Amino acid sequence: MAASYRYFLLAFMVIVLDQTSKMLVFNNMYLHEEINVIGDWFRIHYLLNPGMAFGIKWESEFGKLALTLFRIMAMFGISWYLLKMAERNMHTGFLWCMGLILGGAVGNVIDSTFYGVLLGNAPAEAPTPWFHGQVIDMLYFPIFEFVWPDWVPYLGGKYFEFFSPVFNIADSSIFLGVVTILIMQKKFFKEAPTPKTENAEVPSDNADSITAESSQNTPPAA
After folding, report:
1. Could you tell me how many helices (H) and strands (E) the chain has, helices first?
2. What is the pTM of this model?
């Protein structure tokens, strides 16, 4: 348990940074306001996300409630898993990644669970503000944009922007943790080498005697 505190501390730091950035946006910007940070390719854009990543939501009255409850269960599941993996002395890189994932998960759970009541940002059609809060997104990186030439099949004349999603620090933490695990999985989950077994070699003197004995004991062919 003592060895795992640092990974939970990382998760806590992600939560603090995530919630601080969201409160700064909520208290200092109006919805859909945009601030250029570095040129046009890094902006702070205040959005509310009523559902999952990239604005996906369930078309059901209790879809958001189910999603929030799932996030809460996932949060506890990740915490338990991180604790168990730390007890098994898993690769420290993997444990740091799990700390990032846990911090991001808790950050978005706080939004979904409490923001509907504390910030009053639950959708108008929500049956209750509890567990129906909307996640605050603000990080926007439209690195480049262009219009497809008319001669491109199916895409001609259409506008294209890379990278268009708006997300937050919690999303970034989850993404960084998951991608790092996928890239480094061979290192993180490397199996311990199995001891090599050497075949017993029969000395040449004994080998000759064994061969002679076997030839003497072999019955003659009919």
Report:
1. 6, 6
2. 0.79
Our answer to whether residue 40 is catalytic in this structure is no
171 annotated active-site: yes
Q: Cα separation of 166 and 142, whole Å?
A: 9
Phi, psi angles (nearest 5°) of residue 206: -65, -35
The H-or-E segment that residue 149 falls in is none
Given 137, 150, 205, 208, which residue is catalytic? 137
CA dist 152 to 143, 146, 158, 159, 216, Å?
Answer: 22, 13, 10, 12, 85
DSSP-assigned states of every residue in 75-114:
HHHHHHHHHHHHHTT--HHHHHHHHHHHHHHHHHHHHHHH
pLDDT tens track, the chain, 222 positions: 556 789 999 999 999 999 999 999 999 999 999 999 998 889 999 999 886 554 455 555 567 788 888 889 999 999 999 999 999 999 999 999 999 999 999 999 999 999 999 999 998 888 889 999 999 999 999 888 888 888 988 888 888 888 888 999 999 999 999 999 999 999 998 865 555 555 545 455 555 554 555 555 555 544
Domain positions in the chain: 2-189
Per annotation, catalytic residue among 150, 171, 205, 208:
171
